[in-house]
Write a structure and sequence with these properties.
Largest interface: A-B, 26 and 31 residues
CATH superfamily of the largest domain in chain A: MetI-like
Distance between the termini of chain B: 27 Å
Helix content of chain A: over 70%
Radius of gyration of chain B: 19 Å
Radius of gyration of chain A: 24 Å
Largest sheet of chain A: none
Distance between the termini of chain A: 48 Å
CATH topology of the largest domain in chain B: Rossmann fold
CATH architecture of the largest domain in chain B: 3-Layer(aba) Sandwich
Structural class of chain A: mainly alpha
Order of helices and strands of chain B: HEEEHEEEHHHEHEHEEH
Strand content of chain B: 15-25%
Helix content of chain B: 25-40%
Number of domains of chain B: 2
Strand order of the largest sheet of chain B: 6-7-8-3-9-10
CATH architecture of the largest domain in chain A: Orthogonal Bundle
Number of domains of chain A: 2
CATH class of the largest domain in chain B: Alpha Beta
CATH topology of the largest domain in chain A: MetI-like fold
Oligomer: heterodimer
CATH superfamily of the largest domain in chain B: P-loop containing nucleotide triphosphate hydrolases
Largest sheet of chain B: 6 strands, mixed
CATH class of the largest domain in chain A: Mainly Alpha
Number of strands of chain B: 10
Strand content of chain A: under 5%
Number of strands of chain A: 0
Shape of chain A: flat
């Protein structure tokens, strides 16, 4: 298929999603569909958002192509990258039509998801325990504070030595970063809970175990989800770094490999793909959080 | 000097209104010394008072005088450093025995402590369900019955954040009462309310009190509120806190708003204003000294 047609289809898809979301809002306030879209398209914030994108692309084009500044002139322009990305027959073998592209995406997504899930399963209970039990806090917090500042990449050699093969090593360093972010945000969440909720629960007859499930966990939930969003971002960040050092597949590997092979448009394709996936994954975490914290949503926006 | 004050107060106090039932409290020479980082803060000193079963007692006094400390020791959030507290003759807290909170003395908090993550119904039924004294269905039924008695129908599935402050406080009082406590401890529950909400709140609290006959321990710094609601108003001194003056309120129940303008009411208010003002000045001067 012609890349221009694909581009057109993509733009239409974006518009359709936007229109659908606006329609949801329109139904809420009983404003007509057309009116809502017209209002959005001419609204200040929409124009500014679009302006930001346009300015970014224009500056890119100017520095790389039009003025071809020294050092910048080696880079591909935005148009060139977009065409390569959408081309059925890409010059460097990576586009939305090639199987390799999806193999890299799947590897990275699998690693990030595994690390994120493990970090959540271990980090949330760890944070809750630290906030709930003074003894456990004293026992673990200094250790956590000492290990946490070690940058993830510093773990790579040890991880490769301890764990069988590159794959678990990359997942491990990704996990580690996400784990600390999750645990510390959960702890912060527990500490943010107003003392009167604990007192009220104890007055009403709750024992220490019930406090954990009825006060500590739900009370810390808003912070936990803020932490999960950050941890998702941190997971992608250290994953890509890990993949550049120790992997045969994945977007991080793709970016680094393309650099070595002087296939510059592929670098940009890899980066843009990471941007899109990162955005989708944070949106997913956010929407799960909203579902779990209906009480908060209704409190903020009324019923 | 302190002793003389207390003695005169007790001598002029007629015997308390006695209601049959539970919830008689005896607070004997209670002292509480906080010692954070070696700073010796005497919050309560030789604080004594008797509360009959079913009596509505209001405590007034300047901010930071130890009213809340006293409530916290009764509730079981804080230990005491001297004296003892008895509930229906049983020791509740002594120097050796730290009290623990329980459903026989439920607190309604100053800023409200309904769990924001639970619905109104889940909040109200929390006590009986967590104690295992009622099945969830029985508790739901009882909760709905009690909520509708104070005019709160059809809000069972709402979250506390969706309710007005007046409704929230009503729900919180019901959440306390469903446990059938011996004493209800109210820590300035209507403090942050506007006048209209406040007087509506007084109305339903009085109705609930008249209907249940629970012992109520009510902290406030609003003197009119104290006289209007209580059988007995106690003035607490500034730190170290003890009961300086006891005012017996002999207004008939049910209380009417017209009483607020009666001569009897105004005379009582004048007495309290004087007693509290003296303490407020002392507290202010003590504050100035601390700042210097």
């Amino acid at each position: 298929m012609n890349p221009y047609i694909v581009l057109g289809l993509l733009l239409m898809a974006v518009l359709a999603v936007g229109a659908w979301q606006q329609k949801k809002k329109a139904r809420l306030y009983e404003i007509s569909w057309g009116h809502q879209i017209r209002k959005t398209l001419t609204s200040r914030s929409f124009l500014l958002q679009m302006g930001g994108f346009v300015a970014f692309v224009v500056i890119w084009e100017l520095t790389v192509k039009v003025f071809a500044l020294p050092w910048f002139n080696r880079l591909p322009g935005p148009w060139e990258c977009l065409l390569e990305w959408l081309s059925p027959d890409p010059d460097f073998g990576i586009s939305i039509y090639t199987e390799d592209y999806y193999t890299h995406i799947i590897y990275s997504t699998y690693r990030a998801t595994t690390a994120f899930v493990l970090a959540t399963l271990l980090g949330v209970p760890m944070g809750l325990l630290m906030g709930w039990s003074r003894k456990f806090y004293d026992y673990s917090f200094p250790l956590v504070e000492l290990i946490r500042p070690i940058p993830p990449l510093a773990w790579v050699p040890l991880a490769i030595l301890i764990l069988p093969g590159d794959e678990p090593a990359v997942i491990f360093v990704t996990f580690l970063v996400a784990f600390f972010v999750t645990a510390l945000n959960t702890l912060l969440g527990v500490e943010s809970i107003d003392e009167s909720y604990f007192r009220a629960a104890r007055c009403l007859g709750a024992d220490k175990r019930r406090l954990l499930f009825d006060v500590v966990l739900p009370g810390a939930m808003p912070f936990i989800f803020t932490g999960l969003q950050i941890s998702m971002g941190a997971a992608w960040f250290s994953l890509v770094a890990g993949e550049m050092i120790a992997a045969q597949y994945g977007l991080g590997f793709l970016i680094w490999d393309s650099y070595s092979l002087i296939q510059y448009p592929v670098i940009v394709i890899g980066m843009a793909t990471l941007g899109v996936i990162g955005w989708i994954s944070s949106a997913a975490v956010r929407s799960v959080g909203r579902k779990l914290m209906a009480w908060r949503e209704r409190e903020l926006y009324g019923s | 000097m302190e002793q003389v004050d207390m003695n005169t107060a007790e001598a002029t106090t007629p015997p308390p209104v006695c209601r049959a039932g539970e919830g008689a409290m005896s607070i004997r020479k209670v002292g509480k010394i906080y010692d954070p980082e070696g700073v010796h803060v005497v919050a309560l000193k030789d604080c004594s008072l008797e509360i009959a079963a079913g009596e509505f007692v209001a405590i007034v006094g300047p901010s930071g005088c130890g009213k809340s400390t006293l409530l916290n020791t009764i509730a079981g959030f804080d230990g005491l450093t001297s004296g003892e507290i008895l509930l229906d003759g049983e020791p509740l807290a002594t120097v050796d025995k730290d009290p623990s909170p329980g459903p026989d003395r439920v607190v309604v908090f100053q800023h409200g402590a309904l769990f924001p993550w639970k619905t109104v119904l889940q909040n109200v039924t929390y006590g009986p369900v967590v104690q295992g004294v009622m099945s969830e269905e029985a508790a739901n039924e009882r909760a709905q019955e009690m909520l509708s008695r104070v005019g709160l129908n059809d809000i069972e599935t709402a979250y506390p954040g969706q309710l007005s402050s007046g409704m929230q406080r009503r729900v919180e009082i019901i959440r306390a009462l469903i446990n059938n406590p011996k004493v209800l401890l109210l820590d300035e529950p209507f403090r942050a309310m506007d006048t209209v909400t406040k007087s509506a709140s007084h109305q339903y609290l009085l109705e609930l009190y008249d209907a249940t006959g629970k012992t109520i321990f009510f902290i406030t710094h609003d003197l009119e509120e104290a006289i209007f609601l209580a059988d007995k108003v106690l003035v607490m001194t500034t730190r170290p806190g003890y009961i300086k003056k006891t005012l017996q309120v002999n207004l008939p129940r049910p209380r009417q708003y017209s009483m607020l303008a009666s001569e009897e009411f105004l005379a009582m208010k004048a007495q309290l204003v004087e007693a509290v003002h003296e303490e407020a000045v002392k507290a202010f001067e003590a504050g100035e000294r601390e700042m210097a």
